Amino acid sequence: MRIALITETFLPKVDGIVNTLCHLLEHLGRRGHTSLLLAPNGGPARYASTQVIGFSTFPFPLYPELRLVTRIPAAIAHLKHFKPDIVHVLNPVWLGVAGLWRARSLGLPSVASYHTDVPGFAARWGLRLAVEPLRRYLRWIHNQADLNLCPSRATQRDLEAHGFRRVKVWSRGVDAERFHPRQRSAEWRHRLSNGHPDAPLLLFAGRLAPEKRIDWLRAALDAIPQARLAIVGDGPSRPALEQMFSDGRAVFTGYLRGDDLARAYAAADAFIFPGANETFGNVVLEAMASGLPVVAARSGGVLDFVSDRASGLLFDPEDRQSLVEATRAIVTDAPLARRLSAEARAVAESRRWESVLDGLLDDYDQVISTAHARARRVTGLTGQTVGSG
To answer: CB-based contacts of 286: which residues, under 8 Å, 6+ apart?
Structure first.
């Protein structure tokens, strides 16, 4: 297949969308497909076997870390030259919308993937008047695609309840060989505990932004005086969080990747994830693969793979004290922590990227076949090549 991908975010930014996209590009190369990525500038000119074409951007006013491409006509012109069999837009907001329009004008089948609960985040930010306009806008975008993909059953139910059509779950995988308990090391334990390796070590990984509610971890530390905290990631909330955790009990590492990230997970005793609007939660699955018992909100995409008191502990998503009690239980009940750790690892081992991404390729094939059949019905010309213009 020839696959054109269009994303609103890419390297050097690090988040769940970029992580998923990088795995996809690597998989396309291994499977021998030809692919092109249109993205904001600043990243590599090639990733795996995929050519990456970057374009200048400006910051989205409501969310400055999201960079919107300025040269839309120049960007989408590449679709005609590349002659893809299918166009996949990831988290379409601006460039992705133009990509969907251009795909339709060229008669190309299209897939759109929904990655971020922007309306839910807007509500968390206190922008409640923006929630419904944002939802209408995203629904209008996605309903132009031949297939909409989302990361979890909870997200699928929410989208369908709000009028999104042709929605299917495209789950996420984990590299269970890289993220593994054997990555545990005394050096990383000492570093992340700020020189207190015998203390219980809690860990958070992800973007440091208000919607992640990392400030809730302050209450957990206060309730468990012997504990230490490692915060892996970066983002706009970091200065305020560093001030909040200025007593020396928390270590900020910035973004980590590859084996460094795997060693950070494996060095900890528990993974605490306060966010309540996650469409999946890649970092939770990575922590589970690393053998960590997890504490997560009883909401969103994590419910696809975290079962309460089986593979983790779930807290009431609107109750900070519920998070504190779940964290305390893992720290103080060693048999419970060991049982959750073993089950978390077993769940992660069953969710490999290879099968997840092969399933996506099957979806591409089905969308292409359906589009070709539809074109033949409309034109009456069997064997017509769709998207050759």
So the answer is: 174, 175, 179, 205, 261, 262, 265, 348
